[in-house]
Amino acid sequence: MGPRLVFVHGIGGPRDPAAEREILLRALADGARAAGHSRIVPGLLDGSLADVRFAYYGDLFTDGRARGRAGRSADEAEAELVGELLLDAVEQRLAVTADGQEARVLRRARAQLAPEGEQQGLGNVLRRVLNAANTLLALPGLSRAGGWISSAVMVHHLGQVRRYLARRDADGAGIGIDRRIRDRVAEQLDAAGPTIVIAHSLGTVVTFETLHDHTGPVPLFVTLGSPIGMRTAVRPRMRPQPLRAPATVGGWLNFWDRDDFIAGQPELEKWIAPNAAAVGPVSRRIDSDGAWAHPAVKYLSQPGVAGPVAEALVAAAAR
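The chain above was modelled as a monomer; its predicted structure follows.
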């Protein structure tokens, strides 16, 4: 039996798992061709090279426990952590963007997120976060990157990070939303044979935690546009602490684009210790052709991303 390839998605609205699997697979195939691996593309697309899966959990955010409509779901508790996430991202961008229109927009958003002398009531937090999100949507390409038609939708989608890390929203059996999401990912992994996992955005956080309970071999773990490095909103809330690469991971490549707003503090090797086999994250910067480059397809179509995945699939299939 050949290897399994599992895609794990990030934040966003509901999606068709079968259609999403096809979109990601074709983006990976394009990247593999560009990397000089055209010969494996037919087997990749027809399933003969690997059993390709898509781990879908987005519907868990839209069940009866989700708060309100997409445009009004950012309650005060949600807004507080989303504000931390946005502030982390803004400050990371400002560290590499000193001047110009982008810097002016970022500084305005930072002032809205952390105003001096203003009372920090929860109602004020929600208002500030929505105002800052509206400011950030003026940046070229950011609304397209997340499919965000308004600041409220943007905050709602980013609020999925908070809901996962809050580890609440239990179902009738008392199981929190974070555990139910990890179970969805675990169902797609191969407990016996090799699994190559490609995770994006929030999916990198989910998959990192899931793999700590996985016993099967993972020759390659690929993270795309990961928010794991965000020092306030994400990293300290992850489990298990202190952060260490999952034991069964044989290789970990973390890809980030300078223009990816979500990939704050992208060099994960600074924050995550290697496992017992001395395997830890290896961060590699890529440069896409867009001003904002968070979508998974932007990463997967890059030869620098798809090439190592193709090589790992071929090696795993040969075992």
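Residues 85 and 306 are 29 Å apart (CA to CA).
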